[in-house]
Amino acid sequence: MTKRNNYKPFLVVTFVLLFLFLTPSSKVSQLRSTVFTYSAFLCKPFSKIRNYFKEPTTDSSKAPSISPELQALQIENEQLKESLVFLQKWCIHMQSENEEAKKNLEMNTFRDRLQPNTQALPARVILRENRSWSSFIWIDTGSENNTDPLHPVIAKDSPVVVGNTLVGIVESVEKQKSKVRLLTDNRLKPSVRVARGSLQKQEIQNHIQALLQSNKESKVPLLTIEAREELKELQRELGEETHTVFLAKGEIHGSKEGLYRSVSNILKGTGFNYEYNDSLGLARDLRSGIPKNENLFSGKAVDLIREGDLLVTSGLDGFFPPGIHVGIVTYVDKLQEGQATYAIEARAAVGNINDLHTVFVLSPLTTNILN
């Protein structure tokens, strides 16, 4: 038995479509509004059901009351937060003040060892050109900062230091700023000599203390507990030595040209020997280090210069007062047959020159000599 197809639904749909096409637009609009009205009326019960299950809105009159104790705790919590923010700002301020006070203390201690007429002025680094990165910096002090025209501090050839370490020398002076030639420039050649003993150990202790302090201030520890204990043990082993032996003398200079953004703390040294007596000791043989006494060798042999030695200014160049820390010897070239001096490499004692922010300018040595 075959099933007959039912075409009634298709006929109804066709009739409705024809009716809509043939009905005027005014009648269609009226029919549409009527349908919307009745549909909204029919949907109203469903909207009430939806509102019933919906999360009730906050009503201040029906909100649970907060006890006075809880309100007091909330107020105290806010006050503690404000106090914590204030203490954090205060700690940051005191940290910067302590660093500045430490620098001033180092400067005052170093100043006591200088000549009586030597003065010092603080200065801030304001500019560093890319094309002369390792050769020059600009500082914010100039001729206007000199209070006594007869005894200027900011002048050409004024030494520039950080604490008791050498940074460079003033190249030119303007009214409100000055140009400083850095120690890492290969055209600046201060006269230096080896200082072995208390000054050398003091410099090592300063580096260890700076490393431990940086590790303490860092959010992420830079050193392991074992490394910190080893450094503290090394500090104790260095102890307090009061004797310093001054040995070989020579010149030192930067190792590279001041190229674009080039940075190098490596210094080159030439002409190191101890051929003539001076106020700090007797002349010594180049190879054995034995003091010379009327061309006869006597006394204890010692290396004139070796790795780890501290280099300080000797004052023989007429520009830098003696005793300023310059560098640490990292390499000593072997003497060849016929050579009369040692050649060396050293690391600048000032550390990372990129971190220079505040320096001190000393009155020029030439002015002190004339006065």
In terms of topology, how is this protein built?
Layout: H1 8-22, H2 25-53, H3 68-112, E1 120-127, E2 136-139, E3 159-162, E4 165-173, E5 178-182, E6 191-197, H4 198-217, H5 225-238, E7 244-254, E8 266-273, E9 292-293, E10 296-297, E11 310-313, E12 325-332, E13 342-348, E14 358-362, H6 365-370
Antiparallel strand pairs: 1-2, 1-14, 2-5, 3-4, 3-14, 4-5, 6-7, 6-11, 7-8, 8-13, 9-10, 11-12, 12-13
How does CATH name the architecture of the domain at 185-196 and 244-349?
Beta Barrel
- Determine and state the CATH class of the domain at 185-196 and 244-349: Mainly Beta
Report the helical percentage.
25-40%
Number of strands: 14
Largest sheet: 6 strands, antiparallel, barrel
Q: How much of the polypeptide forms β-strand, as a percent range?
A: 15-25%
CATH topology of the domain at 185-196 and 244-349: Thrombin, subunit H
Structural class by sheet pairing and helices: alpha+beta
Count of alpha/pi helices: 6
Secondary-structure element order, N to C: HHHEEEEEEHHEEEEEEEEH
Mean of pLDDT: 77
Per CATH, the superfamily of the domain at 185-196 and 244-349 is Rod shape-determining protein MreC, domain 2
What's the N-to-C terminus distance? 136 Å
Strand order of the largest sheet: 1-2-5-4-3-14
